[in-house]
Design a protein that fits this description.
5-stranded mixed β-sheet; signal; 16 strands; Immunoglobulin-like; mainly beta; transmembrane; about 5% helix; repeat; 7-stranded mixed β-sheet
Length: about 230
């Protein structure tokens, strides 16, 4: 039985039993095991967890052309794993899951999960201006640049996206400036990625990591420490 035939069958039975689309069961959770930023070619597991013992599980994806069924599993339990063994750009997109109980019908849909596939193009560069050593109270600008015509850059801190900005061209370079909040006494590692806004889940390789070192500014010299030139 094909995936579409299976879905038609369960939908028909749900409609006949009067439980579709009432969504009587609580929504499940959906998360990517390890990380939702996945380098091309790497495996990722999407874990869907419900609050009831389910019998059927459903995973769907929106890659920009609408929601489409991806995987179905018939298994009793309150959690299921959907495995994507070697991701490509075709796996990038937004995912949702739901589950079914024979007596109560289908659950609500999970909250959407954004799966980003990286390493699909050359990396940009990332620099700190005026310096990667920042004193307390000072500001720092992180500048992401590339010769490739990306129209968007994303900035990540410790592997988690914290901001994205549209690029602007400067000569042959495309760049964007970020202004992260600097926390005193806490060093932070940043990377940036380039992508095209028409394919928001398909990112470049990451820039080289940039360590921003923060600390207290040097105190002004005391009067007795000042030296007066006698020249």
């Amino acid at each position: 039985m094909s995936l579409s035939q299976w879905f038609c069958l369960v939908c028909s039975s749900a409609v006949l039993s009067g439980v579709w689309p009432l969504y009587r069961l609580p929504r499940p959770s959906l998360r990517a095991e390890s990380d939702s930023l996945v380098p091309q070619g790497r495996a990722v597991i999407l874990r869907c967890r419900g609050s009831w013992e389910a019998e059927d599980w459903w995973l769907e994806k929106n890659g920009g052309s609408g929601w489409l069924p991806i995987k179905t599993v018939r298994k009793t339990g309150n959690e299921i794993e959907f495995s994507l063994p070697s991701v490509t750009s075709n796996d990038a997109g937004t995912y949702r899951c739901l589950y079914r109980h024979s007596s109560y019908g289908w659950s609500e849909l999970s909250d959407p999960l954004e799966l980003v596939v990286t390493d699909l193009s050359a990396p940009p560069s990332l620099a700190a201006l005026p310096s990667s050593e920042v004193a307390e109270g000072q500001n720092v600008t992180l500048q992401c640049r590339s010769e490739l015509n990306y129209d968007m850059f994303a900035l990540c801190k410790y592997g988690e996206e914290i901001s994205r900005r549209r690029t602007w061209s400067h000569g042959r370079m495309y760049q964007a400036d970020f202004f992260p909040a600097v926390t005193p006494t806490h060093n932070s590692t940043y990377r940036c990625f380039g992508f095209h806004s028409s394919f928001p889940n398909e990112w470049s390789s990451p820039s080289a990591p940039l360590l921003v070192v923060t600390g207290k500014a040097d105190p002004p010299p005391r009067l007795g420490q000042l030296r007066v030139s006698t020249a």
